[in-house]
Amino acid sequence: QLQLVESGGGLVQPGGSLRLSCAVSGFTLDYYAIAWFRQAPGKEREGVSCISSTDTRTSYADSVKGRFTISRDNAKKTVYLQMNSLKPEDTAVYYCARDKQVFRRCVMRSDDYAYWGQGTQVTVSS
Questions:
Q1: Mean pLDDT value across residues 102-125
Q2: In contact, 53 and 104? CB cutoff 8 Å
Q3: CB within 8 A of 12, min separation 6: which ones?
Q4: Angstrom distances, CA of residue 57 to CA of 84, 86, 117, 122
Q5: Which of 8, 38, 41, 73 has a 20 to 30 Å separation from 22 between CA atoms?
Q6: Which residues contact 73 (CB under 8 A, 6 or more apart)?
Q7: Which DSSP symbol is given to 14?
Q8: What is the pLDDT of residues 74-88, one digit of tens each?
Q9: Does the pLDDT value for residue 56 go beyond 90?
Q10: Other CB atoms within 10 A of residue 114 CB
Q11: 85, 108, 91: which is closest to 37 by C-alpha?
């Protein structure tokens, strides 16, 4: 059964760090680009970061560049999002998603992603 399961969210103070994990099953992680999206209350879903399949190229939204790092461990079938220097505006539900097609360079367009996790809440507040 194809699944993506996020974990690692929580409450953190501004300036703090969290590492999100996206554990996958039911497909070969190496073949697919994976992206992280987030959605805050009353706002549209936005792409945060993505990582390509074979060449592991990465892409980041301008709002998180220099603070967030995406990585993948194909052996552990897990994709990570390390989030540092968190700000209140990073508060959202974070989702990981799998590309519709194999062996593509990643883009942060939600329409390109066919399978989604259930999300994990990240709250940045003092």
A1: 95
A2: yes
A3: 18, 86, 122, 123, 124
A4: 20, 23, 22, 25
A5: 41
A6: 79, 80
A7: T
A8: 999 999 999 999 999
A9: no
A10: 12
A11: 108
